[in-house]
Amino acid sequence: MRVLVTGGAGCIGSDLCEALLAEGHQVIAFDNLSSGKREHVEPLFGPGFEFVEGDLLDFDAVMRPLDGVEFVYHLAANPDVKYTPGDATDKDLSQNTFATYTLLEAMRRRGIQKLAFSSTSAVYGVVPRMPIPEDGFFPQPISLYGATKLGCESLIGAFQNLFGMQSWIFRFANIVGPKVRSKGRTVIGDFIHRLKEDPSRLLILGDGRQAKSYLLSRECVEGMLWAIRHANAPLNIFNLGCDDWLEVNEIARMVVEAMGLRNVRFEYTGGEGGWPGDVPRFRLDVSRINQLGWRASHSSAEAVAIAIRTTLERFSGSQPASELACRP
Amino acid sequence: MRVLVTGGAGCIGSDLCEALLAEGHQVIAFDNLSSGKREHVEPLFGPGFEFVEGDLLDFDAVMRPLDGVEFVYHLAANPDVKYTPGDATDKDLSQNTFATYTLLEAMRRRGIQKLAFSSTSAVYGVVPRMPIPEDGFFPQPISLYGATKLGCESLIGAFQNLFGMQSWIFRFANIVGPKVRSKGRTVIGDFIHRLKEDPSRLLILGDGRQAKSYLLSRECVEGMLWAIRHANAPLNIFNLGCDDWLEVNEIARMVVEAMGLRNVRFEYTGGEGGWPGDVPRFRLDVSRINQLGWRASHSSAEAVAIAIRTTLERFSGSQPASELACRP
């Protein structure tokens, strides 16, 4: 099958491309390289793979590579969940909601009906009880990221209903892996960067009591592909993660230990959440995807441990980044 | 207080302007007149009232009248819930979600913190049980209208959380009143128009078994103002309607009777919903706003009866439209 992966040069997107190639599909990775990296897709080049540099907000640029495509995996998004005062407030709206609309409209015009979408547990916002089921209560996102991803989900649902599409929506837990972002946007990369700069102390955002679910990128891809094969409703929605959670303080201790450091002073910015719009604690109910026969094979702590180890290996330069190919 | 009403020349918006003027506020009605009408606001002109013709997608046009405003009532939207094949698919996204974003950003820059928003029961989509509470399950809108209004709600929630705003979101039932749209987009106006053209038969969209909740525009305004006075959380969300529903077939019979017709043949386009994206049956749980001390004083059938009567009076030309001033 000819498939297109938006955000195909991202951490999860490039892992997905690799898995789809292994299944024998013709894969087009579409990415504007705003956060994705060419090095993530370089190991994939070969007869079944094509990389298209383009922006989802450019309608014609989206239309062209969709020619002949049967299935779209839409992973492109603004990857920065944080809102930092001074940021533009329309970044998430453009790169999430508006980009998703453009893709949906291009798919409609091309007559492409199948779509998988990377949503996020941030759509739930602050929730009345945990673990969080897919449809147990009305969501109340508190970040622009979560709000605009919810906007994407609802557009996908409307297109599915109006134009006979079929969709799989995945609300990701925190996805981790060795392809860490260099600016330290994710907690593991952030801690490693800070400790390399100053091994005597570690600044932790919030009070360190934030607790979230973690899943390895490679497992995230496996779960998506499993659910697409085994769920066939017009609109299929899944939480995608493991069923436990891990505290940020624990991650800090794990990073310190893995780096062989001692007497590191933990400092805190304070407050429940790590940043404005951070949901301090969430644990997903993943029984729906479990009932399809798929289950994460690592706990949050195991996933984080593997991500720490492989990220450190990568930092040490023992392997060129491009050869790691996102495998934990 | 100086207040701004977007969509202020619409049916509900102009009723709201009138009520706010009666409370002694300085009122600015902001409307691009794409569906609002100048005649709706003409009776309001006086020292406390100002009309600004402008478009919410024009950032500067929004910024200017916000100067000195303390409270914004955001009612502007694409009023056409129906998607008709051939329509542009981005109308709702632009006029609902994007327009709401522009307003929120302008409010943020102006330091205006209080916002009331007209959302819709269409955000719920097809629901697992009725009556529908505000937060009982994850919504699944099936129309572009409902999907993009959910996008608005989630943006408002994120702005509320990130920038310390305070918001009141109202999920409207079907709002009826004498300011019927001439093209017959609403069921009452549609039936009257058709029967005036051909009194021997009436085309009913769907199977006529659709059942929805109806509320008079005047009561909708009263409910909003009551809830704003009596609820003071950072984010307040209310279903706004009565607690019963009415079948489309019954409305057809009521219109026929009110017009003094006999032997009208009912014809049906067929199917559960009236159009693609129509939610065929919904009944709202309005206990949350009831508990604040407000309750619709008319049932759905009473509201529809009043709307039919006043619309027919208006059609008969016995009163100039501008003098009706939206009073049922």
Considering the chains and any ligands shown, give keywords for the structure.
328 residues, globular, alpha/beta, 38% helix, homodimer, 2 domains, 11 helices, Rossmann fold, 7-stranded parallel beta sheet, two-stranded parallel sheet, UDP-galactose 4-epimerase, domain 1, 18% strand
Give the SSE map.
2 copies of one chain form a homodimer.
Chain A: E1 2-6, H1 11-22, E2 26-31, H2 38-41, E3 49-53, H3 59-66, E4 71-74, H4 91-110, E5 114-120, H5 144-163, E6 166-172, E7 174-176, H6 187-197, E8 201-204, E9 211-212, E10 214-216, H7 217-230, E11 235-240, E12 246-247, H8 248-258, E13 265-268, H9 287-291, H10 300-316, H11 321-324
Parallel strand pairs in A: 1-2, 1-4, 2-3, 4-5, 5-6, 6-11, 7-10, 8-13
Antiparallel strand pairs in A: 9-12
Helix pairs in contact in A: 1-7, 3-4, 4-5, 6-8, 8-10
Task: Give an overview in words.
The structure is a homodimer of 328-residue chains. Chain A has two domains: 2-175 and 213-240, Rossmann fold; 178-212 and 245-280 and 297-324, Alpha-Beta Complex (UDP-galactose 4-epimerase, domain 1). Chain A contains eleven helices and 13 strands. The first copy, chain A, has helices at residues 11-22, 38-41, 59-66, 91-110, 144-163, 187-197, 217-230, 248-258, 287-291, 300-316, 321-324; strands spanning 2-6, 26-31, 49-53, 71-74, 114-120, 166-172, 174-176, 201-204, 211-212, 214-216, 235-240, 246-247, 265-268. In chain A, the strands form four sheets. In chain A, strands 3-2-1-4-5-6-11 form a seven-stranded parallel beta sheet, sandwiched between helices. The first copy, chain A, has a two-stranded parallel ribbon with strand order 7-10. In chain A, strands 8-13 form a two-stranded parallel ribbon. The longest helix of chain A has 20 residues, at 91-110. Chain A binds chain B through residues 83, 89-90, 93, 97-98, 101, 104-105, 108, 123, 125, 128, 134-144, 146-148, 150-151, 154-155, 157-159, 161-162, 235, 276-277, and chain B through 83, 89-90, 93, 97-98, 101, 104-105, 108, 123, 125, 128, 134-144, 146-148, 150-151, 154-155, 157-159, 161-162, 235, 276-277.
